[in-house]
Amino acid sequence: MTFRDEVFKLCKVMEKESITLKLREQIIELRNGPKSMLTSSGINRSSHYLGILLLDEQVDFSDSNIMLSVMHKLTLKEREMISIAHCILINFVNECLNSIPDIPVNIKLALNPYLKFKPLNSSVKIEIADYIDVGIFSEVVEAFINTKIVGLFHIELKKHLAELNQINAIEMNALLTIIEREIDEVGFNQIPASFSELAQSRSIGSPRENNSLFAFFYLCFCLQSVLKVCLDMLAMVFNGEKMGVIDEDSIININKCFSNLLRKGKEFLLQESNKPSPEVAKICVLDYSIKANNINVHEFGYCIATTTSFSSEYGNTLKCKVNIVDEDLNQYEMLKYLYSSI
Amino acid sequence: MVEIEKIYSERAEEDIWSSLLKFTYTENIKRYFEQREIEYNNDLLESISGSILQAYEYFSLSGSASLQISPLLLYYGATNLLYGVSCILTGEVQKIDNHGMKVRLLPNQKSIADANVKFINSKTGGLTTYLKALEGLDYDFSVVRSWTVKETLGSLVELFPDFISKYGNEEIHVIPIKKVRSDTEVNLRVDLSIISLENVQKLIERIPNFKSNYLPPVKNNLNELIMRKKLNGIDLYQTSYTGQRFLSVGHNKGNTDLVLPYYASIFIILYSFSDLCRYTPDKWNPFVQRDTTGEKNLVEKFIYMSRRQFPNLMLNKIFGKDHLFSADIYKDIDNRAILNKEEVLSLIREEVNNKRGK
């Protein structure tokens, strides 16, 4: 089974856990009650439950902020439930990263997708074993360590240990954030110029500088994004959200379908169907065929942007951009251009 | 999608007949069969040539005749033309014993369009023979208990506004549509100020294979219903000689939604009117002389439309593609790139990115 299959299997197992049902009930209650503003503002595309907890702390100091002043603070019970969800996700990330042999602490910390957020003022004391079987992640972690991307990371890590020891986790995490911003700024089907140059410099016989440290940071960025996708999938389970479906009952047009140094991307124009629509920062399934070209598509995409049009000249439509994810849940292609071994 | 051949024409009717009349020369017919490796004999060649020549005469005469006999002349022309085309497409002389239908207007039926058509399921009936020859299908009319001229008129898009204003929307069997292209999609739209949403939804239910080829229709903010073809769907719309697009709605008979080819609907109405004017002058004469309801106006429009369109539809059948006669055909080819908003933004991003990298 691939890592992707294992993560899907884990999601199915998690769905049936009693803590998941309780968390779902709590989240739905918060979303539909007077604290909906807190939960909808708190959950952004990558902070998950940490965002709610951080915002809840800010409500304490709400005098100068109009938006915060109208928000209701979580009760102790509610905060405990959100903390449980957050801790399960943190636990998952830690188990995955701890499985990589000889990984230095600063790198492990830097790869944690939550490091870029402010730490919580009050420490969360949750004993995970009280809520889930501690071995629940073991098969996924085993699959994680066997992915091509982790294999490559392990090899490359050894080559750069000396340089990496000089960088602390915050600095390295900031570098990964810069890579992310470069990608976001350049546009969906474009490649940052620095990436093109990096790929050229890595080609055999290139007279340019062989910038292997930059390539390693890019590898770290990809690995972190794999963990983010997993966290998004687990959060979907806790939130009771169904995976979006892009199929022949919803596709109006395939606006873009491209493959470049950076990614395989598709942009769809969709109409509502009786299946869930794709949402930003969530994985979705692509299931369609183009009979005229003998093309059958059954793959998974990570939705990076949506544009909804309501009651326009074209009715209600949804424009949706997705990166295709591979069996390692990696949505970026450039590794194969940077490393011949992958 | 049916291939469309555009032909420059300032006089469409004459040019259509000019193309059809090529099949009155036996050498031309021989060439047509030889290109398609179809065997022929002299009887077949004469049957085709003669029937098309007669059709031409009837059609020509109908143009100068009044409504007293123009339907009769047009029906004779249409049946001769259908006969000739059936022989061309099958490569066989067709055996026809009767019209394949009967028409009846009861004394209490005041409107011509209320006349009832009865189909005769006969192997040598005109209608069934022509349908078999042109469509390659055996149409089963045994399920048809009742079929009116009105519902057949209601399936002709060219008459749509007049039909609605005269008879209301009870017997509509066609949905006029427009085709809209945007940067990212092509869709079909129905103007809901002409047909209500409720009515369109009911009509769509009776379009065979609609659901398997189109996404569920959605309303927009312009009071239109948008219909989008599925990724692997096929176009179900047709195009009139006027350029008007339309969807044909099935006639609900028994458990079947029966959609007849467009020429067959015209043929059935022509037969009905010809029968009424030939055999029931007591009803037809007062209708032609003293109609006060406006129905005559609609019938005249139908006669005009049939004379223009029926031969065109037959030409399409012979060559298996649509022939569009228009004076607006020849235009310069402009291959300059017209970029949509997305493409312009993409070019700007690319340029900015390149500049940043330097």
How would you describe the overall organization of this protein?
The complex is a heterodimer of chains A (342) and B (358). Chain A is of the alpha+beta class. Chain A has 13 helices and 6 strands. In chain A, helix 1 (3-16) runs parallel beside helix 12 (212-239), helix 3 (36-42) crosses helix 4 (48-59) and helix 9 packs across helix 12 (212-239). In chain A, 38% of the residues are buried. Chain B has 358 residues and is of the alpha+beta class. Chain B folds into 2 domains: 1-166 and 259-326, no CATH class; 174-249 and 328-358, no CATH class. In chain B, strands 7-8-6-5-10-9 form a 6-stranded antiparallel sheet. In chain B, a hairpin with a 4-residue loop joins strand 5 and strand 6. The longest helix of chain B is centred in the last third of the chain and has 25 residues, at 295-319. The A-B interface holds A 186-187, 189-194, 196-197, 248-255, 269, 271-273, 288-292, 311-316, 319 and B 182, 184-185, 187, 215-216, 218-222, 226, 228, 230-232, 342, 345-346, 349-350, 353-354, 356-358.
